[in-house]
Write a structure and sequence with these properties.
By secondary structure, the protein is of the alpha+beta class. The protein has two domains: 96 residues, OB fold (Dihydrolipoamide Acetyltransferase, E2P) (Beta Barrel), CATH 2.40.50.140; 304 residues, 2-Layer Sandwich (BirA Bifunctional Protein, domain 2). Helix content is 31%, strand content 22%. The strands form three sheets. The chain has an eight-stranded mixed β-sheet, with helices on both faces. It has a five-stranded mixed barrel with strand order 1-2-3-5-4. Strands 7-9-8 form a three-stranded antiparallel β-sheet, with no helix packed on it. α4 packs across α6, α4 packs across α7 and α6 crosses α8. The protein is globular, with a radius of gyration of 27 Å.
Length: 479
């Protein structure tokens, strides 16, 4: 059997008992023709493999370059140097894959910028920063399933190709097999989608929510976790065209139950990572602190990364209404000194600067805002008795703004169809959705958590393109 290797993380945690071990990985450094630092991605830490002088011929020594892959067999002994408990005294070294050190685009000693690393996203996983980020991303994804499984939710795979626009914003990617240069047309000149693959106009999904609601009316509690797509031309540090969403839908839940679940969920995810990825978080916290030293004092975070995460899990989220939020903004020094770029008045869709003011300057903790004006929210949100607002909720997080958006859903058929008419949403296309209100309707609620925004929050990274493996953004679909 070729692969009898022990992972570097496990070796570093073991006792130096003199047993023979096999380690495989990529070279991170080679000093004095004696000391090889090997990393296999299981941890940011390297294991040192010690080679006796004269054991390797000159040609082999020259092949031990940065990022060459090797197999080392040897004895696990107590380390002679500082920094690690154990090292491997090599009995044999085999080079599995060469790496031309002159041409290799990732020279770790130069501390490449995040912008440059996005251009070589196929290699950036090999850096310590991205090693830590993607191990944390994995842990968060695992914790998502663990949380809902422990609560008895059913995991639903909702379709990626859909004929409905759940958000009503119209920013969707079309899915078609029709020829672009000469599509079939109807007599009035419009495109004849009956000739298309699905026999109708279809798009990549913006949300699994509507299908999730269908399942919740049978299983009571379900969640989806999959890719979603928005053709929104936003080239910001917080937007992607392809991203992952977690969307639970719960029958017999009202807006307060919804808030309680979302807060519990966020705290659970953070706790899981703090328990299982402490080493990675400490590395990312140090990285963030070093980065912020370059910033002026007023632009630096008041808390370190781990401090911030502990603060979130140890404090209740602030809960306010949209109306209260607008009042706070209108009374704020930032508003009075005209520091907001966007206007503040009742009825606006709050911008990121408003959301971040509420959480970072005013409350200094995550905030749940409820009771938004119905004009700025989707058709499916439950209308409140005041006739002006809906039972919506957004959770705003420090450094990011909105991280969760949700609502109690409108379960009353007459109210829902009336709202769809007002918003020019064709009821005949959503007949299946309306059926859930005809056949045993029930109060229900749900929310969506943008997974990359959660990863951004937990890792302390500042650009969403650095927490997804291969970012899809306007004018960019490399790799």
């Amino acid at each position: 059997m070729f692969n009898k290797r022990v992972k570097v993380k496990d070796l570093l945690a073991s006792e130096p008992t003199g047993q023979e071990v096999t380690v495989m990985g990529w070279v991170r450094g080679f000093r004095n023709n004696q000391f090889i630092a090997i990393n296999d991605g299981s941890t940011n830490n390297n294991i040192q493999v010690v080679v006796e002088l004269g054991m390797l011929d000159e040609a082999t020594e020259k092949r031990i370059t940065q990022s060459a892959s090797i197999k080392a067999v040897g004895t696990l002994i107590a380390s002679q140097g500082k920094g690690q408990k154990v090292e491997v005294k090599a009995s044999s070294i085999e080079i599995l894959g060469d790496c031309d050190g002159e041409k290799y685009p990732l020279q770790l000693k130069n501390r490449p910028s995040l912008e440059y690393l996005r251009e070589i996203a196929h290699l950036r996983f090999r850096t310590n920063t991205f090693g830590a980020v993607f191990r944390v991303r994995h842990a968060l994804a695992f914790a998502v399933h663990k949380f809902f499984n422990e609560k008895g939710f059913v995991y639903m795979h909702t379709p990626i190709v859909t004929a409905s626009d759940a958000e009503g914003a119209g920013e969707m990617f079309r899915v078609t097999t029709l020829p672009f240069d000469n599509p079939p047309r109807n007599e009035d000149g419009t495109i004849n989608f009956k000739e298309d693959f699905f026999g109708r106009s279809t798009n990549l999904t913006v949300s699994g929510q509507l299908e999730g609601e269908l399942a919740a009316t049978a299983f009571s509690e379900i969640y989806t976790f999959g890719p979603t797509f928005r053709a929104e031309n936003s080239n910001t540090a917080r937007h992607l065209a392809e991203f992952w969403m977690i969307e639970p839908e719960m029958a017999f839940y009202d807006i307060e139950d919804n808030q309680n679940l979302a807060e519990e969920f966020i705290k659970y995810l953070i706790r899981h990572v703090m328990e299982h990825n402490r080493e990675d978080l400490e590395f990312l916290a140090q990285r963030l602190a070093d980065e912020e030293k370059q910033l002026p004092q007023d632009k630096r975070s008041e808390m370190g990364l781990i401090e911030k995460l502990e603060f979130v899990i140890n404090n209740n989220f602030e809960r306010i209404t949209y109306t209260e939020a607008i009042d706070i903004l209108l009374q704020s020094p930032a508003y009075k000194k005209k520091k907001f770029q966007y206007e503040v008045k009742w009825g606006i869709d709050m911008q990121s600067e408003h959301e971040r003011y509420l959480v970072e300057k005013h409350f200094k903790k995550p905030v749940i805002v409820t009771g938004y004006p119905k004009e700025i929210k989707a058709f499916y949100m439950r209308q409140n008795d005041d006739g002006k607002t809906v039972a919506a909720m957004d959770i705003l997080a420090p450094g990011i703004g909105e991280i969760v958006g949700g609502s109690q859903r409108e379960e009353r058929l007459d109210k829902l169809t009336q709202r769809m008419e007002e918003m020019h949403i064709p009821a005949e296309e959503l007949w299946w959705y309306l059926d859930t209100r005809r056949y045993g309707t029930v109060p229900h609620a749900g929310f969506g958590l943008g997974f990359e925004r959660m990863v951004l929050f937990v890792t302390g990274m500042t650009n969403i393109r650095d927490v997804i493996a291969f970012p899809r953004t306007p004018k960019n679909a490399e790799f």
